[in-house]
């Protein structure tokens, strides 16, 4: 099975020859499984704008555990153990820069998002990958 990150990079390579820009909306937990894909994007100059949907959790698992705890009358308040990505919070903009990619964020102010996306798109149009780390609210 092709991973989301690898699929996005392949699509961006295919779109490059047509002059199209690809955008990847990336989950934070997913990227933590294989952050080396950032190096691949930089090494091969893949024009891909990655928007990090940073909710600071493996949220699908967190919601499942909350559901199971509630169904079994267990401590729902402990469902975050091993499912949240906090303390310390990960700065994905800095992670991107460590791999040689353009990176910004984490963006907390919605008014800062538009300008950050424009800067990222400028880099991608120049033929290099970029990541914008955006803090998002977890699903309820």
Walk me through the structure:
The protein has 140 residues and is of the alpha/beta class. It folds into two domains: 4-54 and 90-135, Thiamin diphosphate (ThDP)-binding fold, Pyr/PP domains (Rossmann fold, 3-Layer(aba) Sandwich); 56-88, no CATH class. The chain contains six helices and four strands, in the order αβααβααβαβ. The protein has helices at 4-16, 28-33, 37-43, 59-71, 92-98, 110-125, and strands at 22-27, 48-54, 102-107, 130-135. A four-stranded parallel β-sheet has the order 1-2-4-3, with helices on both faces. β3, α6 (110-125) and β4 (130-135) form a beta-alpha-beta unit. The mean pLDDT is 88.
Brief sketch in words of this structure:
By secondary structure, the chain is of the alpha/beta class. Helix content is 44%, strand content 18%. The chain has a four-stranded parallel sheet, with helices on both faces.
């Amino acid at each position: 099975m092709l991973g989301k990150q690898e699929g996005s990079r392949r699509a961006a390579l295919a779109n490059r020859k047509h002059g199209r820009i690809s955008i990847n909306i990336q989950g934070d937990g997913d990227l933590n499984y294989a952050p080396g894909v950032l190096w691949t994007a930089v090494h091969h100059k893949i024009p891909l704008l990655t928007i990090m949907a940073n909710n600071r959790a493996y949220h699908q698992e967190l919601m499942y555990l909350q559901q199971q705890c509630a169904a079994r009358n267990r401590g729902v308040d402990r469902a975050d153990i091993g499912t949240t990505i906090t303390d310390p919070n990960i700065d994905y903009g800095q992670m991107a820069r460590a791999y040689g990619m353009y990176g910004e964020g984490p963006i907390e102010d919605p008014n800062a998002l538009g300008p950050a996306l424009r800067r990222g798109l400028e880099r991608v149009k120049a033929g290099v990958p970029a990541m914008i780390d955006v803090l998002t609210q977890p699903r309820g």
